[in-house]
Amino acid sequence: MMTSQTAPTLQVCRDCGGGAPVDAHFCPQCTKILSISRHGDYFSFLGLSRKLGIDAADLEQRFRGLSRQFHPDYFFNAPPTERRASLERSSYLNDAYRTLKQPVTRVDYLLQLEGLAARSPEEASKQVPPSLLEEVFALNEELDEIRELRTSGTPVDQLRAKLERARGPIEAKRAAHESQLEDLSARWDALVDRGAPPEERRPVLEALRERVLERNYINNLLAGIERELAGTASVG
Amino acid sequence: MSKVVGIDLGTTNSLVAYVKDGAPVVIRDRSNDALVPSVVSAAEDGTIYVGREAQRRLLTDAARTVYSVKRFMGKGPDDVRQEASLLPFRVSGEPGGVVKIGLGDREFTPPEISAFILRDLKHRAEEFFGSQGEVDNEVDRAVITVPAYFNDAQRTATRDAGRIAGLDVMRIINEPTAASLAYGLDKRHQGLIAVYDLGGGTFDISILKVEDGVFQVLATGGDTHLGGDDIDLLLMHRVLSEVGWSQPAERVQEIRKAVIQAKWDLSEREETELNGKRLTRTEFETMIRPIVDRTLEPCRQAIVDAGLRADQIDEVVLVGGSTRIPLVKHLVGELFGKTPHSELNPDEVVALGAAVQADILVTGNREMLLLDVTPLSLGIETMGGVMSKIIMRNSTIPATGSEMFTTFADNQTAVDIHVLQGERELVADNRSLARFRLRGIPPMPAGMARVQVQFQIDANGILSVTAHELRTDVEQTIEVKPSYGLTDDEVERMLLDSFEHAEADFAARLLIEERNEAESVMLATEKTLRSPDFAEIARQDLAPGEQQRIETALAELKAVIGGNDRDAIHEKTHALNDATRHLAEISMNRSVQAALSGRSVNEI
Fold first, then answer.
1. A-B C-beta contacts closer than 8 Å
2. Which of chain B's ends, N or C, has fewer CB atoms near its CB within 10 Å?
3. Has residue A126 been placed in a domain?
4. Measured between CB atoms, does B368 come within 8 Å of chain A?
């Protein structure tokens, strides 16, 4: 994964051969839409620094503004190279907006960009994070017990109450994680703002990754409980 | 300059519109009719009839007449077996291939049938532009609408239909989005808009955010097999269970016609008659309630997908003929908690929007921009018959996704890839779009190759695929075998075929126009002869023998109207016209006098 330190800062206009900044969308020389380069990232594409705090209204404004510049509708009568560039740029813009709009995908993307992505999503969801071992163990016991009770015909509302109770500690963990994620995000943004060196950024990113993996794990657990609840509902 | 148009290629009716001085207008025929019934009939002599004429032939030659062909677009014979049994025309095709529709001894694919309809709309528009004194009245480019919930195969089939009809399909756009464009023109409709589109055969719901001229679809949902046709079928079952199930095809079509009339009646009145029995609106609503209910779940899902609550929607817009049904209006209003809009004609609004989009494309007008989404997730088959999603549904288009593939055996030079569309976990539950074979992978040990396959959904919602081996930088060649589509060669051949038939079709069209003209004169005459005060007119104003002459001329025209002799129809039409000229003057004078004396014309 290319990191910001090694990324090139220039691209070449395929139309006139002139040079353009890597984040430019149109060639400064010939004003033609630039074919998309292999470098750059969603943040810079939208003219944003790599910060996690993004104002939703501002992001939407940027998205609309760029859509109005790139959309294939406006290149319908243009030569094939420009039509192609418009399609590529619009696709990239749509992907960028979708990814950065949601805080969850935004932080995943940042980690990936900084070379800290989970090795695979399956791995991330299967391995129990050490800090959650206790809760996960307790929850699994509860769930087993509930399944047994259900087969022995315990009334649905009793099962439901038990499930709701089992959810309590996990929900609390999630809330704690969300606030930790917020704190870490704010710390990251501060580091970006003052141009902190990589060795200062690294620990924050690693902490972010841990929290993200745990949060994903918790969400899976909660989804499991939801499924059990739906199961008791359909039995009742 | 040749002309561009917007076309609504509907299940039941199709329309064509264009932009005149910045405002979209639907193009009507000489009898002021905007709708072309989406019906195609192939007569024994090979003549192809489209629209009203084809619709009439449903009652005389049902086995050679096809309707609701949109339901077959992009489908295989296995998909449609069940409903095909109820239709008068023959439906066949190779398993895993495209549907074939047999009319007499000829077989057509659904895109070819649709192309007949498109060609008719093209002629209608060209005739109109010609009559406006345009020097170049050729219509060679169009924006065509499809249901938002159409998958890739259905969109591609629609584009193929356009090509077969000799049209450059500039863009495929979604019907609800097109409708929102037409509504959004006056700038009053801003904010969060839900478009509920229940047509003859398909249902769509789209949630849009409209702001500063940007029409951004947030989420869409629907069912490409749910519409007014299903309501007709319910009522037909009711009648057939009364009169007996084995009826000749033409009789079934008569019943279908009566059923549709009854359905329309019940949108205006509290009760009507069907098969000689009373049918109340309440009964009707009880019958159709399950169908209308099936539209509500996709609405709720779309609201959730858009990240909204129903009460946040600012406006609800109704599109499609089936939204005239009071129960539909009522339930949609209840779901969103507000009265839905239907001030624009729900039959015409989609074509108007398509015309606006066509105008945007040719003029480069940047005041408005449509940002639509892909209705279904796109993915590939992975180990164990599971679908792995690459582009999620409701992603704004154009969109891209990529996936890395490798080899399982040493020196393997090809990889098979199966592309799917749908939301289900298992491959078998999703729609197969195409199978690709990636060839030309340089020989290397198993697992070493890194083939990046790039999926691109363009602004039409149509997929294309490219592949790249990263280690050697080799571009892969991809052979596309669409699962339920036509190859480029097939489309090309159909286009050539259509040219061969063009002359015969042209003659047929002239005949149809002549018949339409004849019919309108006939109808007007019959109406006058049946009017309550005709006896009085005949006594007071008509010359001796005049009534007799009119009736003879009418009978003579009736005798030739069904035949193929265009000149004879022309001659008899003129004869009837001449015979009734005096009568027409009298009627006109009476209605003027009536109006002057304060009576309404209706009372005459």
1. 53
2. N
3. yes
4. no
